């Protein structure tokens, strides 16, 4: 926990961090992307929910250890203040060390803003602006914002599309707010995938991104004028997965990216990306463009390949809503 001197020795952390940077990025003049990946805990008390709730609980215990006279509400409020303040120090000191040792690199933190696809109980509010606003305190010192609107198993096509757009929208809001505060424009590099779940037990059952997923993810990035995309996958079972990935990249993903390069040039001539009023136009273009390809004919065509996992046809009919239309 960042708010416990017992559990976190910041001096030792920075010493080890410095050694790691020198070992991993051996070139002192490195000028590429450099990502700080901290996933075990999140940098605000309120964002440590679910499996990370232990950090909230331990923070409250830490407060009550010294201040037993506080009631539960008072202890929680103080724990929030202490945790958030300590987390800022940890993140800021980490970033400062990184930029000191490799000043030409484009440093930033993986996975911000904090958003969550499972938003049924939050009126489909996928991101948390109040949490983002707190994180601006250290994100304003980064060079790049690295959001990760990953498509994961579970929700239907409509929810996934909305989720990706909301992550990109919140990322742009953060960048604009940082600019308003006078810290300059931050680059946006988006982490994306090409597999819905790369951890499946049998590589032949991998569900790669179908053309609709490619549209709502990669085309959306172009429409929101991000500076670049980082394609991530796990190294697990890579030897067994490699030829499946190559086949998909050669026949589906690669050609789509080549098309997007041309599409990007077309959009630059069609849209002024510097005006807020065009955000709505971008979202409408994305929705219309992607929805046009989500047809029964196309789904049938996609599922006659080996790229989209078992039960392809039925699962995509359900996810798209076409199944209900056919049976209404």
From TrEMBL:
<comment type="similarity">
    <text>Belongs to the glycosyl hydrolase 56 family.</text>
</comment>
<dbReference type="GO" id="GO:0030214">
    <property type="term" value="P:hyaluronan catabolic process"/>
</dbReference>
<dbReference type="InterPro" id="IPR018155">
    <property type="entry name" value="Hyaluronidase"/>
</dbReference>
<keyword id="KW-0326">Glycosidase</keyword>
<dbReference type="Pfam" id="PF01630">
    <property type="entry name" value="Glyco_hydro_56"/>
</dbReference>
<dbReference type="InterPro" id="IPR013785">
    <property type="entry name" value="Aldolase_TIM"/>
</dbReference>
<keyword id="KW-0378">Hydrolase</keyword>
<dbReference type="GO" id="GO:0004415">
    <property type="term" value="F:hyalurononglucosaminidase activity"/>
</dbReference>
<protein>
    <recommendedName>
        <fullName>Hyaluronidase</fullName>
        <ecNumber>3.2.1.35</ecNumber>
    </recommendedName>
</protein>
<dbReference type="InterPro" id="IPR017853">
    <property type="entry name" value="GH"/>
</dbReference>
<keyword id="KW-1015">Disulfide bond</keyword>
<dbReference type="GO" id="GO:0005975">
    <property type="term" value="P:carbohydrate metabolic process"/>
</dbReference>
